[in-house]
Design brief:
By secondary structure, this protein is of the alpha+beta class. Helices cover 49% and strands 8% of the residues.
């Protein structure tokens, strides 16, 4: 497999899981600051111009939840996915919340240009990130996190994704200091 990543990006969760399963993969740095994601060679891999991307023997995968699920299924002996349909759906619910709500809330800090060209609006969005991320942390703690891992006693694909969110919380709010859900069972990342 070939794994395309950038430090301090959503690829962090995938990188954790690749290491957890002891996967054999080639690591390719995409320097977002130098716009490597917009180079033709990378756009052929991921036309969304984002990371992560995972090139597999079956094709290319993008989007963190999809890649995490693929790795967990590929290395099913590690049991990073629950066995019941309902519990698997709860994993998908949690990771969907991280991808569609938390990640977007955090993206407003430095990427307001994705939603508006108005600089004042971008500034206002950026100022709101700390509050939004605190609200997200509270939602995770009160409605998702079971403990000691996200889904209870089983370490799942939710846990490396939560590690990514915890890192985002450290950059944007005081919530990380007050929120036990990001402890990851004693493994603060």
């Amino acid at each position: 497999m070939d794994f395309y990543y950038s430090p301090k990006s959503a690829a962090y969760a995938v990188h954790i899981l690749l290491e957890e399963v002891n996967a054999t993969y080639n690591l390719h740095l995409i320097d977002l600051k130098n716009s490597n994601q917009t180079e033709k060679s990378y756009l052929r891999i991921n036309p969304k111009a984002r990371v992560p991307s995972l090139v597999t023997k079956d094709g290319v995968l993008t989007e963190t939840p999809a890649i995490l699920t693929y790795i967990a299924q590929l290395y099913s002996c590690k049991q990073f996915l629950p066995k019941t349909v309902f519990d698997f759906s709860k994993v998908q619910e949690f990771n969907s919340y991280l991808a569609s709500t938390v990640h977007v809330a955090h993206a407003h800090k430095h990427r307001g240009h994705r939603w508006t060209d108005d600089e004042k609006s971008q500034s206002l969005m950026s100022k709101k990130v700390k509050e939004n991320m605190s609200d997200c942390a509270e939602m995770i703690e009160n409605h998702f996190f079971i403990g000691p891992w996200v889904m209870g006693e089983q370490y799942t694909i939710c846990d490396p994704y939560l590690a990514l969110v915890y890192r985002c919380l450290l950059y944007t709010s005081d919530a990380a200091d007050d929120t036990p859900c990001v402890d990851l069972g004693g493994r603060r990342i």
